[in-house]
Amino acid sequence: MSTERAAIFDVDGTLADTNHLHIVTWWEAFRQAGHRVPMRDIHRAVGLGGGDLIAHLLGEDHDPEDDKQLVAAHHALYATYFDRLAALDGAGDLLRALAGRGWGIVLATSASGTELSALRRAIDADDVILGAASADDVTDGKPAPDPVRHARELAGVPAERAVFVGDSLWDMRAAVRDGVVPVALLSGGIPRTDLETAGAREVYRDPADLLGHLESSVFARSVRP
What we know:
One of its GO terms (biological process) is DNA repair. InterPro entries: HAD-like_hydrolase_sf, HAD-like_sf, HAD_sf, PGP-like_dom2. It comes from Streptomyces phaeolivaceus. This protein is an alpha/beta fold. It has helices spanning 19-32, 39-45, 50-58, 67-79, 91-100, 113-123, 146-155, 169-178, 192-197, 207-212, 218-221, and strands at residues 6-9, 104-108, 129-133, 162-166, 181-185, 202-204. It folds into two domains: 6-18 and 85-221, HAD superfamily/HAD-like (Rossmann fold, 3-Layer(aba) Sandwich); 19-80, DNA polymerase, domain 1.
């Protein structure tokens, strides 16, 4: 696939209202394994891939033998919500509006497999999504630039013709490292100041807010075919 310009989107917390589900299910997975990890710390780590999230919260010197058990426990707990995942207000409409303006829509997410399928069903915009760069497609997840770069490669565009929309510090750092324009949403619960410090060029409340300001946003101004 190829397009003249790409709108790349994170999914959890950006298009789907799932961050707090991840917080609770990671908290329970850690609890079952005998680790006490505050929910506030898990919140700030959401957006990292499973192995990176565990290392970030337990420290690099934790026993890596625990990782598979923790990831499996989190997945099993989170999977109980698959048929109830909800898109954020305006998510599908935003993707369709951008596609109608000539933007190629690509996802860049740490989700994969059945989890990603459940998220895409919730968003209900597969008619305009060209593809997805998932955790299965890259060696290093965000904040490394690899997921964003792979999404760009799926769309066939250089960095100067791409915008990445996310909700976490890891999203913003990955976008900056890849050289695309970073746009942040507050729907994941991370403060505006933190997102701007991490590189966000613009910040909006949620997908519906970005959709309402589309004509004055970076999508209308900075990136041209």
